[in-house]
Description:
The structure holds two protein chains of two kinds. Chain A has helices spanning 26-37, 76-87; strands at 2-8, 16-22, 45-50. By secondary structure, chain A is α+β, with helices and mostly antiparallel strands. In chain A, a hairpin with a 7-residue loop joins strand 1 and strand 2. By secondary structure, chain B is mainly alpha-helical. In chain B, helix 2 (32-60) runs antiparallel to helix 6 and helix 5 (90-112) packs parallel to helix 7. The longest helix of chain B has 29 residues, at 32-60. Classes of the chains: A alpha+beta, B mainly alpha. Chains A and B meet through helix 1 of A and helix 2 and helix 6 of B.
Amino acid sequence: MIFEVFRQERKGQAFAHAGSVEAPNEEFAEAYAREQYGRRGESAALWVVPREAVHELEDFADELERNYHRVDGYPLKEKLGRARERAGTAAA
Amino acid sequence: MSERAQRLLELADDELILGWRNSEWTGIAPVLEEDVAFSSIAQNEIGHARALYELAAGELGVTADELAFDRQPDEYRCAQLAELRLVPDWARTIARHYLYETADQLRIEALKAGDDRELAGLAAKIDREEAYHRLHARMWFERLQDDPRVQAALEELWPYALGVLDEELRPLLVERVGREPSPLVERGAHTPGLAELWAEMTLVRRSLPAGASW
């Protein structure tokens, strides 16, 4: 079985994918993950997850290019600037 | 030599020689992940040996390196269980791993509770790493213990395992492993394999009599 290993570098930080280990069961997977990703003080914590438990999604339909749904699709800064100009209160 | 220094050398030699034997699996373990894990355990054991040699070295007025590499094979105090060459037999390796870690735990617990506070402190540190060795040993042992090859290896190695411990700790090992008391292989004499191991282990060191410097 393949287990994916996620590593947290310091307490409070997000876990990032570190790699994977191959093991016959969870117990072996934990032991191997500990040896490969934890024994040099490089991790504060590990998540060891069977690969089947990870659901990968990569089909994102966006046929109508509704980019206004995205946070980067709405240039607020420009619009704010233009509104300030119209109101005569442009920032210095 | 003081009784304490003698005792430290027994512990250190066990860890050095077993670490060395376990490291013989590097590159040839049954699966790649195990190769990494078992090599890492071997390296830990050698690290424990280093710390123990340093304690002994302070008392004997020598260096840890001198203790590890400059003695003659018959001066080593390791138990024969540690020195047996078991590659490429994984069943016997797991049987030894399980027996040694179980015996070592009893010894470490006794040291932690002992009057020698310096050694008790080091034993506590070592124990925190050994906890993962025991986890590893137990997980393999549980998986393979019903295999007749592992059963035969336990039978064969049991007298050696008893020889790792001082007399007063042996009944505890009997209880923990759940086998009958048996005649045992006492510490002191060595198998011919130790001299071969020693020749290889000290090769670089002996090639530079003036002292290795890198």
